Amino acid sequence: MADAPLFSFEHVSVDGAQRPRLQDVSVVLPRSGITAIAGPSGAGKSTLLRCCNRLEAPSQGVVRYRGEDVAARDPLQHRREVGMVFQQPVVFPGTVADNLRVADPQAGPERLEELLRRAALDPAVYLERDASTLSGGEAQRACLARTLATDPKVVLADEPTSALDETATAELERLMRSLADEGVPVLLVTHNEPQLQRLADHVIRLDEGHLASTSEQRRG
Amino acid sequence: MGEGTITVAGLVLSLSLVAVAIGISLREHLRLERDMVVAVVRALVQLLIVGAALELIVKPSTPLIWSWLWVAGIVVFSAVTVRRRAPQLPGVFGIALTANATTAIVGLGLTFGLGIFAVNGRTVVPVAGMVVGNSLKSCVVVVQMLASLIADRRPDIEARLALGLRGTDAARPIVRQALRLAINPQIENTKALGIVFLPGAMTGLILAGVKPVDAVLVQLALMYIILGAVVVTTAMTALVGTKRLFTSDERLVTLVRSREDE
After folding, report:
1. Contact predicate A76/A53, CB 8 Å
2. Mean pLDDT for all residues in chain B
3. Residue B229 exposed, middle or buried by CB count within 10 Å (0-12, 13-18, 19+)
4. pLDDT per residue over B7-37, tens digit each?
5. How many CA atoms lie within 13 A of B180 on its CB side?
6. Minimum-distance CB partner of B162 among A53, A71, A92
7. Which whole-number Å values give the CA distances from A56 to A61, A68, B160, B162, B254, in the listed order?
8. CB within 8 A of B112, min separation 6: which ones?
9. Is the pLDDT of residue B260 over 50?
10. Cα–Cα distance between B109 and A181 in angstroms, integer?
11. In a mutagenesis test of the A interface, which of B163, B174, B250 is the best target, namely the one with the most A β-carbons within 10 Å?
12. What are phi and psi of B246, to 5 degrees?
C-alpha cells in the first residue's frame, strides 16, 4: 500500500434529504501538498471531506485511505489519524489547555506548549486562557492545535478561514502550508478562488454532487 | 358530609383558580387556554374512571393480579408518554419501558420488602403511581433536553468525534447537562419536604389516625425510594438513549426537530 493514494473515492454516492449530496464520484487525492476541494455552495465539498474521516458514510461506493477501505478501519483510530478543522471553530468549555487535553489527555506542559507553538499561539499568553474569550482567528488556531494533538497524518480543513478576517486568514494559510511542507497533507474545502490560487497544489472541483474536474496547479 | 368528601358545587368552585389561569393566558396571549381546558376535562374523566376502577381493585375479594396488571399499564403508558415527547430519539419507547419497569420493580420491591406497606389492593397501585409518576416527569424532561441539545450542539459533538472520541464520550457534557436539568427538581422537592409542602402519603396517614412521627418515617422512606427511582430511571433512559444516537461506526445520527422545539 506504500504507493497507494492518500484517499481514493470509487463510485461514491451520499444520499441527501432532497437530492444526493454526492453522485457516483470517483477521484484520487494525492499523498502530499495541499489539495483544494472547490465548487459552489451545495456542490458536495464538505460531504466529500466528511467521508474522509467517517463523519459521513457513503450510501454507495468505497472510500479508501492509503489503499485500505475506510469502512473496514477502526473509526476512532482513523479519526485520530485523519484530523479535521471545521468551518466554525468549536472550542470546548475551559482553558485552551483543557481543550488540548480532550484530544491528548496525557499531554504534559511541554507537549501542550509545543502544540500551541505549532499553531502560532504563544503558550505564555494562551495556555491558561479561557477558550471562550478567544477571537475567531485565535479560536481557529487553538482548534488546529487541538487537532494536531492526535498527531494526525492528514488534516482536513472545511472552509476554516470563511469566518476570519484578512490577517487571521493569512496566518492560518501560512500554518496549513507549513503543515503540508512538514509532510502532513492538507485537504482544504474552499470556494474562495484567490485562496485556492495562493495555496493549492492540486484542485478537485465538484458541481451539484458530481466531479467536475481535477487539476495540478503551480502556485503563484 | 364527612371529612374527605366534596360536593359537585365544591368541585366547580375549586375550578375558579383555573378560570383565573385561563384569564391570564388569554390576556398574555400564551395560547395555553385550550390545553388547560383539555387538561381539566381529561383529569376529570381519567380520575372518575380511575376512581371507579380503584373501587373494584381495593375490594378485599378482588384478586391481586388486577393490581399488578394496572401497574403494568402504568409502566407502558409512561413509556408511551416519553416517546410522544421525543419521538425523534431512536428506540426511546423500549428504553423508557425498560427503565420504568426496572424502577417499578425495585421501588415496589423496596416498599413492600421493607414492610413500609403491606402488599394488598389498597397499596400496590398508589405506590407504583408515586414511583413511576415521579420518574415520568424527569424522564420526559431528560429526553426532551437530549433531543434539543443534541440537535443544537451537533458541531460540538462532531468536533469531539473528529478527535477520535467515542460517541458516548463526545455526548457526555450534553448528557450531564440534560440529567442535571431533569433530576434537580426532584432533589429540590426532597429538600423542601416538610418546609414548603407536606407530602400526600404523610398527610393521608395522619388524617387516617396514624401517629405523626410514624407517618413521617413512612413518608421519608417513600421519598428516598422515589428520589432513587427518579435518578435511576432518568439516568438509564439518558445513557442508553445516548448510545442509540450513534451508529456502530460512531457517527451521530440526524435528528429531526420536533415542533415543540421550535
Report:
1. no
2. 88
3. buried
4. 878 878 888 888 999 999 999 888 999 999 9
5. 6
6. A53
7. 13, 17, 15, 11, 11
8. B118, B119, B123
9. no
10. 67
11. B163
12. -120, 140
List Cβ neighbours of B230 (8 Å cut-off, separation of 6 or more). B134, B135, B138, B183, B186
Chain B hits for A59, CB-CB cut-off 8 Å, are none
Give the bridge partners for A63, in sequence order.
A9
Beta strand ranges found along A154-201 (DSSP E): 154-158, 186-190
Residues of chain A positioned with their CB less than 8 A from the CB of B247: 57
> pLDDT tens-digit profile of A102-133?
999 999 999 999 999 999 999 999 999 999 99
In this structure, which amino acid lies at residue B122? R
**CB atoms A77 and B164 under 8 Å:** yes
Q: Which amino acid is at A45?
A: K
Q: Would you say the pTM of this structure is higher than 0.90?
A: no
Query: From CA A63, how far away is CA A4, in angstroms rounded?
Result: 13
Provide CB contacts within 8 A for A18, sequence distance 6+.
Answer: none
Taking the C-alpha atoms of residue B83 and residue B212, their distance in angstroms, rounded to an integer, is: 40
Q: Which residues contact A43 (CB under 8 A, 6 or more apart)?
A: A206, A207, A208, A209
Q: Whole-angstrom Cα distance, residue B106 to residue B127?
A: 12
The residues pairing with A154 across neighbouring beta strands, listed in sequence order, are: A82
CA distances from A197 to A27, A34, A200, B85, B151 (A): 21, 11, 6, 51, 36
Residue A202 DSSP class? E
CB A40 within 8 A of CB A97: no
Which of A21, A55, A59, A115 to substitute to test the interface with B, most B CBs within 10 Å? A55
- Give the Cα-Cα-Cα angle A183, A187, A191 (nearest 5 degrees): 140
Q: Which residues contact B43 (CB under 8 A, 6 or more apart)?
A: none
Interface of B with A (CB under 8 A): 155-156, 158-166, 173, 247, 249-251
Task: Tell me the C-alpha to C-alpha distance, in Å, between residue B50 and each of B56, B81, B105, B125, B208.
Answer: 10, 18, 22, 11, 21
User: A71 phi and psi, to 5 degrees?
Assistant: -65, -20
Report chain A residues whose CB lies below 8 A from the CB of B160.
Answer: 92, 102
B3 pLDDT higher than 70: no
Determine phi and psi for A155, rounding to 5 degrees.
Answer: -120, 125
